[in-house]
Amino acid sequence: MSIALVTILFFVFLFPGIFFTRFYYTEEFSKQYFKSSYYELLLSTLLPSIIIHIAGLYLADNCLGYKLDLKSVLILLLGIDDINEKSIAIESIQSSVKNIVLYNLVVWVLSGFLGYSFKKIIRKFKIDRKHKLFRFHNEWHYLITGEILDFPKIDGEASKIDFVSVDAVIDTDAGTFIYSGIIQDYLLSKQGGLELIYLTEVNRRLINDDPQNDTFDNLEDENESDDRLYFMPGDFFVLPYKEIKNINITYYEIEEVENEDDIEDEEMN
Amino acid sequence: MRKLVQSDKAIKILSNPTKSNDLRRAVRREKSDTNSRSARSGSIIVRRVGK
């Protein structure tokens, strides 16, 4: 049997696993699929392929009455020299071409659906946060969204987070600045590292102008502006990660209370 | 752009100029006081989540 035919059959056999894995690593974790090595990819597709084929063939046999002609497949795969057996195997496959194609198409579509559903289940029940085995290799996602707080042995609860604040140190010709803002989104590079961070509500100050504990006490008016800060105009501020020397991430929850001024106003009325 | 972790509460506050100003001040105040894990400005209190 030609090597080309064996390779094609091998890939056809692996396709369910490839579809499963491709749809498992989607959305925020899609880069993980592309940065896997061929060896990792083979391993991660082989097991799902075997399981899906076993389930698929079992269902095809029990629900539709289609049995896998394993003997014919092995004769063709192993390249047995017996011409009679070979021709019987080819005839058997030729007579079932429609069913074979249909089986594979259905299995491929179902594999993609299963992969996506499996990922959704892992994410919904936070299994990836609780068990390292299921964790995706996008560490930045866990850090930036605060899902890292749900990891074992880390204090906090990601569900309490209302917004994430970031302070990034950046060197410029005018000095070293700290840019502070609220994280809106991020972009990963092809290698899987962080490439860009999108911020809103951004202000900038020189690193030497650290606030003191009494900075705000010294401001006479609550609404007096802090002279150390320059507020960046625009809707989004984009920080290229390669420019950042280090980064400080803080997770906040918000509580809205009735304004004391409002209470006073109501009392006067 | 997908919504990352901003809650509906945060989005609502940030869309209100007075409240977003309070939020910014509260965050700056919280960051400037190393002994505190929360701060208030106007009607907004911010609290650190986690360690």
Topology (elements, then pairings):
The complex is a heterodimer of chains A (269) and B (51).
Chain A: H1 3-24, H2 30-35, H3 38-64, H4 70-78, H5 83-95, H6 97-124, H7 127-130, H8 139-145, E1 163-172, E2 175-188, E3 194-206, H9 215-218, E4 230-231, E5 237-240, E6 244-256, H10 260-268
Antiparallel strand pairs in A: 1-2, 1-6, 2-3, 3-4, 3-5
Helix pairs in contact in A: 1-3, 1-6, 4-5
Chain B: H1 8-14, H2 17-32, E1 38-41, E2 44-48
Antiparallel strand pairs in B: 1-2
Q: Would you report the number of β strands of chain B?
A: 2
Fraction of residues in H or I helices of chain B: 40-55%
Biggest β-sheet strands, sense, barrel of chain A: 6 strands, antiparallel
Strand content of chain A: 15-25%
Query: How many structurally independent domains of chain A?
Result: 2
Going by helix content, strand content and strand pairing, the class of chain B is alpha+beta
> Total number of β-strand segments of chain A?
6
Oligomer: heterodimer
Walk me through what this model shows.
The complex is a heterodimer of chains A (269) and B (51). By secondary structure, chain A is α+β, with helices and mostly antiparallel strands. Helix content of chain A is 48%, strand content 21%. In chain A, strands 1, 2, 3, 4, 5 and 6 form a six-stranded antiparallel sheet that branches. In chain A, strand 1 (163-172) and strand 2 (175-188) form a beta hairpin. The model of chain A is unreliable at 263-269 (pLDDT under 50). Chain B is of the alpha+beta class and 51 residues long. The radius of gyration of chain B is 12 Å and the shape is flat. Chains A and B meet through strand 1, strand 2, strand 3 and strand 6 of A and helix 1, helix 2 and strand 2 of B. Strand 6 of chain A pairs antiparallel with strand 2 (44-48) of chain B.
